[in-house]
Design brief:
Length: 454
Amino acid sequence: MWKGRFSQPTSQLVQSYGESVSFDWRLFAHDIRGSIAHSKGLVKAGIITADEQAQIEKGLLTIQHEIETGNFEWKESLEDVHMNIEAELTKRIGPAGAKLHTARSRNDQVATDVRLYTRDAVDAVVMLIQSLQRALVEASERSGGAVVPGYTHLQRGQPVLFAHHLLAYVEMLSRDIARLQDARKRIDVMPLGSGALAGSTIILDREYVAKELGFAAVTQNSMDAVSDRDFATEVLFAIALCGVHLSRLSEDVILWCSAEFGFITLSDAHTTGSSLMPQKKNPDVAELTRGKSGRLVGNLMAMLTLLKGLPMTYNRDMQEDKEPLFDSLDTIKAALAVFAEMIAGMEVNETRTRAATSDPMLLATDLADYLVNHGVPFRSAHEVIGKLVAHSISEKVAFADIPLAKYQEFSPAFEADLFACLNLETALAARKGIGAPSPQNVAAQIARWKEALS
Ligand code: ARG
């Protein structure tokens, strides 16, 4: 492709060191789509005839079919997906094929291909996130009135509906979608026509080509266009954060299905056994997802580090953008798909959640609120209840079993109705402010998400 000025062949080591076709072959459909659109632009610019364009298009579609059916031979010596396809086209159709690369460089070509590929992949990831959201909303609905302790510092805090806990993840995932959709706006800009770095003296109707490729806009600076990988970096960040969210959910799932918590049971289909310990049922899917989230963070770091020292414009370093990008897209897609299945097969063990929420200490804050409602400043109320907690622990007597007269020794503001706030149902129903976990609120949130995800 560049043999004109060289008198020595490329070293075999350089060839295998520099090849990218072993991983960028997967851009083939987008590369061909880009080339067909470019060929139409060349007709409009008067560089090729409609007949030559038809030969190019037919040739490329035949090659695409052969690739799709496994009948195409990729050659390492042709370095990358772009040169493999172009060389094969020219071999087949001759001069028309040799005109295809007019006013184009692999620099704007690869930038275009990766944007087309990433745009499709982002749409697929968004759909998979929505499927997981749907599974979580359905699990919330199935969990009915199951109540669990809400934790801070992994210490029991206050009671919440299990559904409220699951819906927290639905919220996180909706922000992941919003980030991907926002990144998509910056993916959706066409670099083709920027040439190697300085456009071309052959003037193409870039807006026409962009329309052919479904791009919303064209880039406005040819140097930026060939050296910009911000769009891919943003996607890697959105995926890494989504992975971190899945990792946190994984950690919850792992805790919940431990014997110590026992809040949920995962289906046999989504757990694995031990080759040694016959009783084991392990949450490998969650553990693998927690582990794989490290890769997603690593891929983001790889991309940022790759770009940070690059002078303008294209540098070959940028070929290294693809493996982290592909790996993150593949990894998050697989994680989302398997997670949605696992959540769909998850069951709540109400005996265990009820046992955990029978801990009266979960309602200590409600008792403090009771005093506040009876005119006691919150800081004083907090101290009174703190002393009552100490009393309850040292005397081994639950809040419900402390007599009213004793309560009144701690604060004269206590009256007989204090016992009403020691009831879990009352305590939950009372949390009816926006965003709080009253059963009515949670039911409304489930309805809202079902509507939004339908
Ligand atoms: N395989 C290359 C990449 O992915 C394509 C662009 C090569 N351009 C060049 N001038 N060597 O970055």
